[in-house]
């Protein structure tokens, strides 16, 4: 009798364990995925136009200005967003140019500066090439308020941008010692190579309007702590100029629209403007022929701005 009771008890316990295990499996199958967490990956193509300014000063007076312009470029990029919880998201991404049309214009005021139109020397280089142009950005967005369909995020991030051009061939109008804009001619071969680096920790505000299957988002970011440097190589003169700049400012504004297709896919378009304000710094000059170096205090300047339009797709995982 006792043996039968033990057998029945063991059978009951095993049956209860099996039932509980089956219930756990069913619950795990039916448990919904937390919509406030997950990963979203985006990829896009776009159009970019940009301009970088390179400046030389002599005792505070403008001596030279070089305008390095991306007239139009095709860019490709992407980013990944991790939604940590319902109020915090982390994002990392970037873009690079695929093809670009560029121009460089070099102005000098060797007879004294009396406004931009008083230049004495000008050269034009329509065959300028972009050897590289890219951006890397990492950021966090913390949602701090919402009202009806509007949501508000505090933004913090770091952005790095690098642009490099090589100018070759071209034409010029120069002034002789006794004349003004009285000499003209053409260049052949490499002329000048120029590169800028911009490092930007920033803060900002994001606002999202959300409707069923549709969203619009605007962001404004800024920084008073932008650090930049550049490098200029004058091939014909065998001179290299490197500059480091003090802290300057940056302002960026973007506007995006998104349309959902199903639960996981989204198509989006975005416009993005960035302005890195003019900054001054010191120059170190390297004479590659003689090996000599010397410094010019507060003799350099730089700035940069860009406008991009992109179109892409994103997928939630």
Order of SSEs: HEEEEEEEEEEE
Shape type: elongated
What summary fits the major beta sheet? 11 strands, antiparallel
Approximate helicity band? under 10%
What is the tally of helical segments?
A: 1
The overall number of domains is 2
- DSSP, total strands: 11
Q: Kindly report the CATH topology of the largest domain.
A: Lipocalin
Q: At the first level of CATH, what is the class of the largest domain? A: Mainly Beta
The proportion of strand residues reads over 45%
Q: List low-confidence stretches.
A: 1-16, 18-33
Mean pLDDT: 90
In angstroms, what separates the terminal alpha carbons?
Answer: 59 Å
Radius of gyration: 29 Å
Model description:
Helix content is 9%, strand content 74%. The protein is mainly β. It has two domains: 1-31; 37-316, Lipocalin. Strands 1, 2, 3, 4, 5, 6, 7, 8, 9, 10 and 11 form an eleven-stranded antiparallel sheet that branches. It is elongated, with a radius of gyration of 29 Å. The two termini are 59 Å apart.
